[in-house]
Amino acid sequence: MASRLLNDEEEACDAVQDAFCNLLEARSPASYDEARYRLFAVLKNVCINKLRRRRAVASGAMPEQPVEQPGTIDAERLRAELLGSLTPLQREVFCLALDDELEYEEIAERLGMSIEGVRTHMCRARKILREKYKKLEL
Questions:
Q1: Is the pLDDT of residue 88 over 60?
Q2: Secondary element (H or E) of residue 93
Q3: What is the mean pLDDT of residues 4-12?
Q4: Are the C-beta atoms of residues 16 and 43 closer than 8 Å to each other?
Q5: Cβ count within 10 A of residue 80
Q6: 3-state class of 138 per DSSP?
Q7: Biggest alpha carbon distance in the chain?
Q8: SS (H, E, C) 68-86
Q9: What is the Cα–Cα distance from 78 to 86, expressed in whole angstroms?
Q10: What is the rounded CA–CA span in Å between residue 68 and residue 5?
């Protein structure tokens, strides 16, 4: 499909790789058919963006900012949005565990709380993040 749209084998290979990279950032598909559909939809959009850039270069007017592809995710924005749904203590426990890779015992000691309290906050944080993530339309 990419070869037919772009009429350039190398650019088509790049488009397929870009499409797969975009899909890796998105949530997992529920079925084979959904994965196939999303792959072709993203690949088509990647090819269209490449054609637009090609046309802009040919006309001498290079776009100032790259055209954002539908289906791409700004990871920092997504992280901030998800972490914003947690309480400050849940966010701190969660970030210490994942970002700083601290053990529950170390987190409990650092925050002056019990290990069971750390486990409870992690469990609640994961549940909230999982529910929030499922509700997002990516």
A1: yes
A2: helix 88-98
A3: 82
A4: yes
A5: 10
A6: coil
A7: 65
A8: CCCCCCCHHHHHHHHHCCC
A9: 13
A10: 19
User: CB count, 10 Å around CB of 23?
Assistant: 18
For residue 4 the two structure tokens come to 């037919």
pLDDT of residue 6: 84
Give the integer Cα–Cα distance in Å for 71 and 106: 39
Position 55 confidence tier, pLDDT thresholds 50, 70, 90 = confident
Gyration radius (Cα) of the chain, Å: 21
Q: What is the pLDDT of residues 98-125, one digit of tens each?
A: 888 889 999 999 999 998 999 899 888 8
Q: What are phi and psi of 29, to 5 degrees?
A: -70, 150
Q: Tokens at residue 82, please? A: 């998800």
**Token reading at 46:** 């990647």
Contact 133, 105 (CB under 8 A): no
Task: Say yes or no to pLDDT of 67 above 90.
Answer: no
